Fold this protein.
Amino acid sequence: MSERKIRVLIAKPGLDGHDRGAKVIARALRDAGMEVIYTGLRQTPEMIAEAALQEDVDVVGLSILSGAHMALVPRVIERLREAGLSDVKVLVGGIIPDEDVEALKKMGVSGVFGPGSSTQEIIDHIRKVVGAA
Amino acid sequence: MTELIERVLSGDRRALARVITWIENDEPQGRQALATLYPHTGNAHIVGITGAPGTGKSTLVNALAKSWRRLGQTVGVVAVDPTSPFTGGAVLGDRVRMRDLAGDPGVFIRSMATRGKLGGLAWATADVVKALDAAGFDIIVVETVGAGQSEVDIARTAHTTVVVEAPGLGDEVQALKAGLLEVADILVVNKSDRPGAEGTFRALRAMLDLGRGTPRTVMHHGRVMRIESAEPDSGGWEIPLLKTSALNYEGIDELAGAIADHRRYLHETGTLDSRERMRVEAELIGRLRDALLDGLMQNLPPGAFDEMIEKLMARRIDPFAAVRELVDGAGGRRIGAD
């Protein structure tokens, strides 16, 4: 029986040690029937791109609460591109000021989910961008 | 397609990752890829790591891979975690413990969800191992889901099965029960720095000593076959019992050494061939069963299957007669159609 699953990598780049949000998202995506590869804290952009490649994921979700998103996100996107993974959708969650959202989207981020976003919004977004709505 | 498979054979990681996805999803390209890759398999040593949840399997895989890399061997890892039976989703978290292996081009880690399969592995695990084998990895480690007493599929997939125990998980009676411990080629007490490790070690030692001297036999196609004895003087394999503390990298080189010894034993005694024969036979039977079932279902008259379920529920037919009727029905139609 042929069965496609949406595969999502959830990673925390940078140095902040708060992974509760990432775990909540991982759990919600699991409950939405997706396969979530959870990589844990303090991932470098290189580690994230490598894991995304090996796991052949559709989506990379980055959780950043340190305020370093404008530095980290372009580096992750660049590493993904170098690995030939330009088609992988990148989502960013965490503490992201409104004024940074447009800039992140210009870099190629498919969706930004700050505080107050519901897990359902994220699930709907992923299903839409992966084309499995 | 053919180009992508060529790239797998030349060690392209992106191509390998994509082919694994096809195989996992049981897509037609996946079967085609496996057919092309199959002649290039059979070179890797396949090591299974199994044990109860929380015994430290992922950490042990991380440490073992580091040991093998120091010896210059390349390592493929397949880490299996359970799929939720309710939603079909999964959280695959084994990479968290394998971060030491990041950035090493001689290591490839793939997480797999069981996708409804019981027994400790996913349906496609053995096929994903074939892809890694064809891609040229020297050692392929398969980490099972946190296994209980019946998740023994790994013994049919791996050449060397390592069963991992940890302190505080059970007494000597647990060690006597059939199942996981019986499939061990190597037994490991991990977390040996924890209290109670010595007791666990002694209980397993006693269990291993009890098992000596009695030949194990099995009924195989109506014949009684003797399973290789654990007697050292008969030239059989004596199951080593080792202590490790994977987090502190203690006992890891010894475990890698025991795995290498077992590999040598398999080669020198011809046991590798007999295990391979059993594995290939089991795979062929499984695939035949699937193919015959698919063929039968396609040849059934429309609605016949659902009607039979209704009849069974109403107790108007028994299951054996139901099978006979469906097989005859499909066969009759097939002959008629031809």
Summary: The longest strand of chain A covers residues 59-64. The two ends of chain A are 21 Å apart (CA to CA). The helical segments of chain A are 20-31, 45-55, 69-82, 98-107, 119-130.
